[in-house]
Amino acid sequence: xxxxxxxxxxxxxxxxxxxxxxxxxxxxxxPLLAEQLPPxxxxxxAQGDAVAQTELGSRYYAGRGVSQDDAEAMLWIRMAAEQGxxxxxxxxxxxxxxxxxxxxxxxxxxxxxxxAAEQGYAPAQGGLGYMLAYGxxxxxxxxxxxxxxxxxxxxxxxxxxxxxxxxxxxxxxxRMSPEQIAEGRRLTREWKPTVEPH
Length: 198
Description:
With 198 residues, the chain is mostly helical. Helices cover 69% and strands 0% of the residues. It folds into 2 domains: 35-104, Serine Threonine Protein Phosphatase 5, Tetratricopeptide repeat, CATH 1.25.40.10; 109-190, no CATH class.
């Protein structure tokens, strides 16, 4: 049965007519709702709300509710990052690392990862650990890489992410001496987060 026939038949012939009508309305409006920004998000971002700026930038990055636009993503994420917002700092590092909206620059990526990592943001800790493990944008340092990866494992928001960080840490440990691992663990125990001034 076509949707047109369901709409044009008398209600007595189709007791579920209202259900079909609701279904058609949802089919038409759900894609439109998915393409819209949450109410007030752009206004909050424009007023300097770092969380809203990060969300808006992330939506431009992924094309959620807006057309995908790396330059707009970079604009909003940078505003939030410069306010000291750790998730935005990580995202900005990721933009540099992936050459999205800006020329790729591992040194710049590592610097932004570090700022977020020092605040205790696990994704940035994992990113910085990876970069230190391979000398990408920073001097290779297995001990510090181990510390950051171990901190990322401890702060991971879910089992899947924890597993990824654990795998990276364990692969790195295979290239380290027992003394280096012990030093990495000591640094992990002694590490304290810092808070950036806003």
